[in-house]
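Sequence and structure are kept together here, with a separate record for every protein. A complete record is shown below as an example:
=====
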Amino acid sequence: MPPRTPNSSSMETQIPPSLIPDHAGDVIIVGGGLAGLSLACALGTAGVATLVVDRDPPEQQLEPEFDGRTTAISYGSAMVLEGAGIWRHLDGQVGPMLDIRVTDQNSPLFMHYDHRDVGDQPFGWIIENRHLRQALFRRLAELDSVTHITPVAVKGMARDGSGVLVTLEDGRRLSGRLVVGADGKKSFCREHAGIRQIAWTYQQHAIVCSIEHEKPHGEVAVELFLPAGPFAMLPLAGGHRTSIVWSERSDMVDFYMGLPPERFQAELQSRVGDWLGRVTPIAGRWAYPLGLSHAERYVDQRLALVSESAHGMHPIAGQGLNVGIRDVAALAEVVVDALRLGLDPGAPDVLERYQRWRRFDTVALLAATDTLTRLFSNNIGPLALARRLGLATVNRLPPMKKLFMRHAMGIVGELPRLVRGEAL
């Protein structure tokens, strides 16, 4: 078990023996986002008694206005969702990503990834977050070992050698042997454990929307690097709809978000170009601040952090949730293996195995996305020439391209069973 910080709450909070919980399970997941619910489904598929605390009502989370974002699901992450019983509930709402084209402004030099160079499977799939949530809720309803407690937030927590007691704002108490913080960038669980994090902002926001267009996208994803930040075009299901993730300087976001529809359409058209024909924004646009964050550790006494509670990165490579899903697959595996051996899933050695497994992959991706963001979000002449030559060089080196493609697909390194397509 790694050393705790001197102010760690886990050293001070003991569970009063007289408190009787309203619900009990092996694992308590705090946070009902995409990663938290995916973990609940994975554990529930293996029959693990799991409690999920979700502060937002499901019906609200399914409204189009709740979250306009889309997610690029890598091939490895799709295998996890399949193994957790989630994928079959997506009802054809996923759009395959067969090719990826990366270019710097209007340079004729580019990098092109073709999925056929590494097999017959897509690199990944693009899905609207609300459709993924719908699939998660449907899967949860099938799992008898999972209790979805919503809408309510966590008020307090106590952890000691014997277990975990979580108190909800409505007064209910939950007991378990392991608590998982899946509660996002401002994680209550991380703060409760006194886990510090490094974090900075890129002075960028992501403007997110979807467009309809005259010409089919051909299942091609495009990453266009502009001086203010990357402009991504992600193919949605159906052939004539594309999700836009437009990174822009933070001081310009209010201007673009406030544009009337016809001027906003013109700004989009100028960036998309004519390869999709005339583009028309679909109702709704959202803006999210962009930055990097990384927790100094992912575990504490009877506590594990996953996804954005542990790390956050720029969407430049579309890996944010995919890294979180690999957290989910690894943590689910170590918990299930411990329970099958009759061991304590919240024991220090179990949690340390999870932390060792996930740290290298996460730190490597954080470093890569940070470097790419800083390298490409500018218009400095020598840097622009160097990065364009770099794209063209990699494009002509098949072994290097294949390695990058396998990384993008999430199938490099020590893979959890779910990523390999095996059952927990």
Q: What stands out?
A: The two ends are 25 Å apart (CA to CA).
